[in-house]
Amino acid sequence: MQKIHSFLALPLVIALAACGGDAKKTDVKADAKAEAPKADAPKADAPKADAPKADAPVEMIEHDLASADPEWAGWVAKGPKEGKVMQDGIKGARIAAGRAAGFDLAFAPKHTDLATLKESLEKGASASEGKLKLTFTTETPEALEWTADGYGAVKYNFVRNMKAGDREVTCKNNYMVGIASQESLARHKEACDTLQKKG
């Protein structure tokens, strides 16, 4: 008789264990989820990744461009104090500083065909298969400006045909790297206007 009672009680025990056990496990899991902090939940005091940062002050001084190429003997332009003068392409002069200053400006001893340059830039963006988008903000015979949006960042760029004294030159940022902010863009453009021949 005892065996029969045990036999009859067995399905009930299994059923209770199944219901109770699963419910208990579900409750434990639910409690664990409720108590565990969400990994992707932003902290109230954490700064936003896309919050714009104010540029650090940059001390600008006059640099002698002669060391870049004999073409620039007697020519000077302003750049960050820690900037270095180097050659850029054929007979070009460049002032570049590190990441802290975020400055990279070049001068060419001739005007640039901006229509051809734009066409080349567009071909490059097209070859990126949608990873890079260019938006042209200024397009005149004297200046080409654009933003490059891609690879996790938006960068500003410009190329300007100008006259320094009686000489035709191009002033441009290093658009292979780009400029990180509008403040820095303005600083680069202001430096273009400091190009002059002394003596």
Automatic annotation (TrEMBL):
<protein>
    <recommendedName>
        <fullName>Lipoprotein</fullName>
    </recommendedName>
</protein>
<keyword id="KW-0732">Signal</keyword>
<feature type="signal peptide">
    <location>
        <begin position="1"/>
        <end position="17"/>
    </location>
</feature>
